[in-house]
Every structure is written in structure tokens, then in C-alpha cells.
Amino acid sequence: MSEKREGEIKMVVGFATEKEIKEEEEKGLLLKILNEEYFGVKELEQWLPWKAWTIRKKIRSGEIRGRRIKGKWFVSREDLYNFLRKKQKDQEKILTKYLILS
């Protein structure tokens, strides 16, 4: 973990364990907004099959629910999970339709 500079706040993103979250909170490094963890576009780019500009486009169109904070887009863990669940359901519908037509 990098050294914290005075006045600097680290926003922890990713899939952290409860222990890791608690450690970060104790150090004063975890930024939560309304008790929710947020992922930046760069972090989402690592997990989703799209480039950053596509992710931003999906956020702006409302396909992925996001919030603009200080000029940057962020997606809450809950909103990311909701988007992924919807994508999975859509894929299941397409596969079921394909199998029925086959």
C-alpha cells in the first residue's frame, strides 16, 4: 500500500473482504459514500469486457447506473451487481430462445 500524503483520501475499489475493508477504515483510507463502496471506470475496465469509453457510454445511456463525482464516473457495488444480474438474465433468455428454435 502506498504512503498516504496529508489531505489525501484513498478510495478503495474492488472486491475486498470484510477484514480488508475494516483495516482500511481503521487507517482512514476508505472512502464510502452513504455506506456504499464505489468503483471507478478504470476498475470496471479490469472486470468488464469493454474499454473505459464504452463503460462511460453505458453509464451515460443509463444501461449501467452511475454517479458523477468530481468529474469522474463511479458505480456502486450494488448497481454493478444489478447490471451483471440483468446481463446474465438477458443471456439466459437468448440461449433459451436459441435452444427452443434449434
Q: Quick recap of the structure?
A:
This protein has helices at residues 18-27, 41-47, 52-61, 77-101, and strands at 38-40, 67-69, 72-76.
What's the layout of helices and strands?
Layout: H1 18-27, E1 38-40, H2 41-47, H3 52-61, E2 67-69, E3 72-76, H4 77-101
Antiparallel strand pairs: 1-3, 2-3
Detail the poorly predicted runs: 1-14
Helix/strand class: mainly alpha
- Please give the share of residues in helix: 40-55%
End-to-end gap: 53 Å
Q: What percentage of the residues does DSSP assign to strands (E)?
A: 5-15%
- Count structural domains: 1
Please give the count of helices: 4
List the strand order in the largest sheet: 1-3-2
**Rg, nearest Å:** 17 Å
Largest sheet: 3 strands, antiparallel
Overall shape: it is globular
Number of strands: 3
